[in-house]
Amino acid sequence: MQELEERIRRQGTVKPGNVLKVDAFLNHQCDVRLFDHMGAEWARLFAGHQIDKILTIEASGIGIACLAARHFGDVPVVFAKKTQSINLDGDQYTTRIYSFTKQREYPVIVAKRFLKKGEHVLILDDFLAKGNALHGLIDICHDAKVVIEGIGIAVEKGFQEGGRTLRKEGYNLKSLAIVESMDPDQGTITFAHNPA
């Protein structure tokens, strides 16, 4: 998606350790108009697929998922929580995910009443690098016996294995921007347009 790539080029910051900061418009300050355009693009990419619910993970996925839902007929958005709280009651699907960004493992929880057997689910998230968060959401989907219609990602780090692994596993993965390489010294970012 050219609009997203241009924003990454213009406002993204490359840091050492394969870190791409896009907090000016994607995962801290949110550009709602851009999110709406991203939702329209995912609706185009997943046209013809039955989507009953969108599943994401807190916190950065929530905004993009909510705006995307408007383009799928206002389907509900369910977000996996990363901490147990008194507001989470009843039976739950749980798994554990290791976050390389936060350098720790955390639980991922979805109340069972929000994912029903046989529902068709689209998973959306802001970033894909190694794929740990997505595999956690996939585990929850398998436990819930829902149909994963596809996975939509805003920014995929194509030089890391997450996207390749998910595609080899047979998932219909559509990333709006695939970063092929980043150079923290030069501050340059290149994009791939044909996922492996």
From TrEMBL:
Question: Which is one GO molecular function term here?
Answer: xanthine phosphoribosyltransferase activity
Q: Which GO terms describe its cellular component?
A: cytoplasm
Where in the cell does this protein reside? Cytoplasm
Main localization (coarse): cytoplasm
- Catalytic reactions on record: XMP + diphosphate = xanthine + 5-phospho-alpha-D-ribose 1-diphosphate
Q: Which residues are the signal sequence here?
A: none
Pfam families tied to this protein: Pribosyltran
Per the record, the pathway is:
Purine metabolism; XMP biosynthesis via salvage pathway; XMP from xanthine: step 1/1
Q: Where does xanthine bind?
A: L20, N27, K157
Keyword S-adenosyl-L-methionine found = no
What's the superkingdom here?
Bacteria
Ranges for domain Phosphoribosyltransferase come to 43-147
What's its EC?
2.4.2.22
Which annotated residues bind 5-phospho-alpha-D-ribose 1-diphosphate?
A129, K130, G131, N132, A133
Which keywords describe this protein according to UniProt?
A: Cytoplasm, Glycosyltransferase, Purine salvage, Transferase
Example of a GO biological process term: xanthine metabolic process
Quaternary state and partners of this protein? Homodimer.
Q: Which HAMAP family match?
A: XPRTase
What family name appears in the similarity comment? Belongs to the purine/pyrimidine phosphoribosyltransferase family. Xpt subfamily.
Q: Give the function comment from the record.
A: Converts the preformed base xanthine, a product of nucleic acid breakdown, to xanthosine 5'-monophosphate (XMP), so it can be reused for RNA or DNA synthesis.
Q: What is this protein called?
A: Xanthine phosphoribosyltransferase
> Lineage of the source organism?
Bacteria, Bacillati, Actinomycetota, Actinomycetes, Bifidobacteriales
Task: Tell me the name of the encoding gene.
Answer: xpt
